[in-house]
Design brief:
alpha+beta; Nucleotidyltransferase, domain 5
C-alpha cells in the first residue's frame, strides 16, 4: 500500500485526497488536494467556479492530531474567490474552521480535554499554549452549541462555581428535566443572571415554573424582576441547606482552633491537626487518619462535637426517603435544636433556614436539587 493511500485512510479528512507524505525528524507533513472543483467561501455557503490562483509559495498549514511522538501537519495550496458578502477570501476547507491553524479534529480533542484536565496537562499533552486552548474552546462552543438549548424550559437550576481559589466565579443555569447545563457567564450577581433572562426573552421566561438556587438574595432578585420569571416558584434546594450547616461547622472549628492556639500548652491545639476534613467529610468517605481524629473529637465532646452532630443530623434528614411533610417537620425540629445550641454559627444558620422555609418546602415537593444537576459542570 502506498503511503498516500495509507494516510488517506489514517487521517480520514473529509473532501481531500492525499497527494504526498514527507517524514521529517520531528514532524510528518501530509499534502492534500481538495476533491471538489467549486470554490466555497469559508464564511458562508456561497460557491463559485471562478477563482484566483495563489502564489506558488502560499501554502496553507493546519496542525492535526499527533502521530505518536510526531507532530502531524496538513498542507494544501488553496485558491482565492470573491464572495459578494465577505469580499476576497481564501477558499474554505471541509476539515478546518476559517482562519484557523488547526483541523476540526484537533480542536475537538482540545475542547474535550479542557473539560477533563488541568491547564498544565493540556498544554503538555497537545503542545500548544494556554491562550490557544481558550480560543479553540470558543470556536468549538460557537459551532457545537445547541441553538435550541433555551427552548421548552420549565424547571431550571441556578448556581455558581469558582476557580482560582474562589476569586473568580461562573454562573451556570441547568435544565432539570434534560439534566444539562444550558447557559453560563462570568460573575455571580444579579446582573449576571439578568443576562440569561435577556437572552431567554419574555415569552420563554413566562413558561418557567420553578427555579432552584442558593439562599442568597442575588439570583432571587433577578428571577423576580418584571419580564423575567416572577411567576416561577423559587426553590432553595437541600444541597444549599446542608451547605449552610457545613459552613457553620467550619466557622465554629476556626473559632475553637484560634482559642486553642492561644492556650499556654501548644500540644492541645496539635491534637486537632487535620480536624477540618474529618469534620466536613461524610463519615463513609473518611480516611483512617481522619476517622481517628474524629474519634478523638468525639471523646473530648464539647462545642465542636455538638456542632458536628448538628451538621450530620441535617444531612441525614435530607438523605432519607421521607415525604415532604415529614421532612419539613423534622427540619423545624432541627432549627429549634440549633437555636438552643448556643453555638453562634448554628443559631445564625437556623435563622437563615427558617427565613427560607417556603422555598425549601417547594424544592422538596418538586424534588429539585442543584446537587443532582451540578454533575453537568464537570461533564
Amino acid at each position: 500500500m502506498r503511503a498516500t493511500t495509507a494516510f488517506k485512510r489514517l487521517l480520514r479528512l473529509d473532501g481531500v485526497n492525499v497527494t504526498a507524505v514527507e517524514f521529517l525528524p520531528a514532524m510528518v507533513v501530509v499534502t492534500v488536494a481538495l476533491t471538489r472543483r467549486k470554490l466555497v467561501c469559508p464564511e458562508c455557503d456561497y460557491s463559485t467556479w471562478a477563482g484566483y490562483e495563489l502564489h506558488r509559495a502560499d501554502v496553507s498549514r493546519w496542525r492535526h492530531l499527533d502521530l505518536g511522538s510526531w507532530r502531524l501537519e496538513v498542507r494544501a495550496r488553496l485558491r482565492r474567490l470573491e464572495c459578494p458578502t465577505h469580499g476576497v477570501r481564501v477558499e474554505g476547507v471541509p476539515f478546518a474552521r476559517p482562519r484557523c491553524g488547526f483541523t476540526a479534529d484537533f480542536e475537538s480533542l482540545v475542547a474535550w480535554l479542557a473539560t477533563k484536565c488541568d491547564k498544565t496537562t493540556i498544554t503538555r499533552l497537545v503542545r500548544i499554549d494556554w491562550e490557544s486552548v481558550g480560543r479553540i474552546c470558543a470556536r468549538v462552543v460557537a459551532d457545537e452549541l445547541d441553538p435550541g438549548r433555551l427552548d421548552d424550559l420549565f424547571e431550571i437550576g441556578v448556581d455558581e462555581i469558582s476557580w482560582r481559589k474562589h476569586h473568580r466565579y461562573l454562573t451556570l443555569v441547568t435544565d432539570h428535566r434534560r439534566r444539562k447545563v444550558i447557559w453560563g457567564a462570568g460573575g455571580k450577581d444579579t446582573a449576571t443572571l439578568d443576562a440569561f433572562f435577556d437572552e431567554l426573552g419574555p415569552e420563554r421566561s413566562a413558561a418557567i415554573e420553578a427555579v432552584s438556587m442558593d439562599m442568597g438574595p442575588a439570583y432571587a432578585k433577578s428571577v423576580r424582576a418584571p419580564g423575567h420569571a416572577p411567576q416561577a416558584v423559587i426553590c432553595f434546594d437541600p444541597f444549599h441547606v446542608v451547605k449552610a450547616a457545613t459552613e457553620a461547622l467550619e466557622e465554629l472549628r476556626r473559632t475553637i482552633w484560634q482559642e486553642l492556639r492561644n492556650l499556654p500548652d501548644p500540644t492541645i491545639a496539635k491534637r486537632f491537626k487535620g480536624a477540618r476534613w474529618a469534620l466536613l467529610k461524610n463519615p463513609a468517605d473518611l480516611t483512617d487518619a481522619q476517622a481517628t481524629t474524629l474519634a478523638g473529637i468525639r471523646r473530648n465532646g464539647g462545642a465542636m462535637w455538638r456542632g458536628y452532630q448538628l451538621k450530620e443530623a441535617l444531612r441525614a434528614l435530607f438523605a432519607g426517603d421521607l415525604d415532604a411533610a415529614t421532612t419539613m417537620e423534622l427540619l423545624d425540629r432541627w432549627c429549634s435544636r440549633a437555636q438552643r445550641s448556643r453555638l453562634a454559627p448554628f443559631v445564625k444558620a437556623a435563622a437563615t433556614v427558617r427565613n427560607h422555609r417556603d422555598g425549601i418546602a417547594a424544592a422538596i415537593e418538586r424534588g429539585l436539587s442543584n446537587e443532582s444537576a451540578s454533575y453537568c459542570a464537570s461533564c
